[in-house]
Design a protein that fits this description.
Layout lengths: L4 H11 L12 H11 L4 H14 L3 H5 L3 H8 L6 H16 L8 H5 L6 H12 L8 H10 L11 H11 L4 H17 L17 H4 L19 H13 L7 H5 L6 H13 L3 E3 L5 E3 L5
Antiparallel strand pairs: 1-2
Helix pairs in contact: 1-11, 2-3, 2-8, 9-11, 13-15
C-alpha cells in the first residue's frame, strides 16, 4: 500500500506546527543546529535554546571561534552534551574547509564530524530541498502502520527503512521535500506511538487501520528511565562545572551525589573519557577547554 502524498501534503500545508527552524531566513547551518539538538530531545526544550544559538552563532566560524566550554555552557540542560562538542568540531571544519557554508549533498555531509545518516539527509532535504529519504522514529512508525499494517516498526534497518521511504517520495524535488517534512509531522503529532489519533489522520487509507489496528506482537522498546541513572549523575556534575567560572575542587563534585560514591566516580570518569571534563595538573576539574 502506498501513502497518498497529495492528501498528506495538503494536510501539512494547513496543520504544520510553526517551528522556528521552518521560518523564512533560516540557513542550512541553523537547520543543522536544530537537527543536532532535536536528537532525543523534545521540541519544547530545544526551541528557546536554538533561538539563542542562532543569535550567538549565526555562522559556523562564530561558533568555531568560541571555546568548547562556551558551547557546553550554552547547551545547558538539553542532555547528551557530547552532541555540543561534536557540533563545535563540525563548525570548525565548515569554517576551515567549506567556506563557512553547510554542504548540500549527503555524501559530503556524512564526512563532517558528528553527522550521521539521518542528520545528513535531513539537512540535504529540509535546508536544500533535495529528494532524499529522511527516516526518523516518527517516519518509521507511519510507514509501519500505513504501508505494512503493523502497530510498531520493529528494529531499525537503515537499508530497508531508506528503501521504504524512498519508494514513497513524489517524483519532483519540491514535493518530495515537503512530503518528507509532512510524514515526519504526521508521526510526531497524529500517528503517535502510544495514542494515535486515527480520526484526525489525513491519509484516506492505512493498512493498519484496514486490518483492524492489530496489537503489536513483538517486544516493546523499553522507555529509558532517567532518575537514578549515570546520566542523571553526569548531568549534576556538568551543572556544577557549567555554573563555575573557574576549575573546582573534587569536594564540590562529591556533594552533588553523596549517596553512591561509586556511581558518582563512574559518572565523573565517563565525563573525562568523553572529553567533556578535564582535570588540571593540581587536581581540579573543569569543562572541556578550561583545564589548562
Amino acid at each position: 500500500m502506498a501513502v497518498d502524498s497529495s492528501a498528506l501534503i495538503n494536510w501539512y500545508d494547513v496543520q504544520a506546527r510553526d517551528l522556528p527552524w521552518r521560518r523564512d531566513g533560516v540557513t542550512a547551518w541553523h537547520i543543522l543546529m536544530s537537527e543536532i539538538m532535536l536528537q532525543q530531545t523534545p521540541v519544547v526544550r530545544v526551541a528557546p535554546i536554538w533561538e539563542e544559538w542562532v543569535q550567538r552563532w549565526p555562522v559556523p566560524s562564530r561558533m568555531a571561534a568560541s571555546s568548547q566550554a562556551d558551547v557546553l555552557r550554552a547547551w545547558g540542560k538539553l542532555g547528551y552534551p557530547r552532541r555540543a562538542l561534536r557540533l563545535h568540531e563540525c563548525a570548525a571544519v565548515l569554517a576551515a574547509e567549506h567556506g563557512d557554508v553547510v554542504p548540500n549533498d549527503v555524501d559530503t555531509l556524512l564526512g563532517l564530524p558528528g553527522i550521521g545518516a539521518y542528520t545528513a539527509r535531513a539537512v540535504a532535504c529540509f535546508a536544500y530541498g533535495q529528494r532524499v529519504p529522511v527516516v526518523d522514529t516518527n517516519v518509521r512508525r507511519v510507514v509501519a502502520r500505513a504501508v505494512h499494517g503493523r502497530a510498531e516498526p520493529g528494529n531499525p534497518s537503515t537499508t530497508r527503512d531508506l528503501a521504504d521511504v524512498s519508494a514513497l517520495l513524489p517524483r519532483t524535488r519540491a514535493r518530495a521535500a515537503t512530503f518528507s517534512a509532512a510524514i515526519m509531522e504526521l508521526g510526531a503529532t497524529v500517528c503517535t506511538a502510544r495514542s494515535p489519533e486515527c480520526a484526525d489522520c489525513p491519509l484516506p487509507s492505512c493498512a493498519w487501520v484496514d486490518a483492524g489496528r492489530p496489537a503489536h506482537t513483538g517486544e516493546r522498546r523499553k522507555v529509558q528511565k532517567f532518575a537514578g541513572t549515570d546520566r542523571q549523575v553526569r548531568g549534576k556534575l556538568m551543572a556544577v562545572l557549567r555554573e563555575s567560572s573557574a576549575p573546582v575542587e573534587r569536594v564540590r563534585l562529591d556533594q552533588v551525589w553523596p549517596g553512591d560514591p561509586g556511581q558518582r566516580d563512574r559518572a565523573l570518569h565517563s565525563l573525562l573519557i568523553d572529553g567533556l571534563v578535564e582535570q588540571t595538573d593540581d587536581g581540579l576539574f573543569a569543562l572541556a577547554g578550561e583545564g589548562g
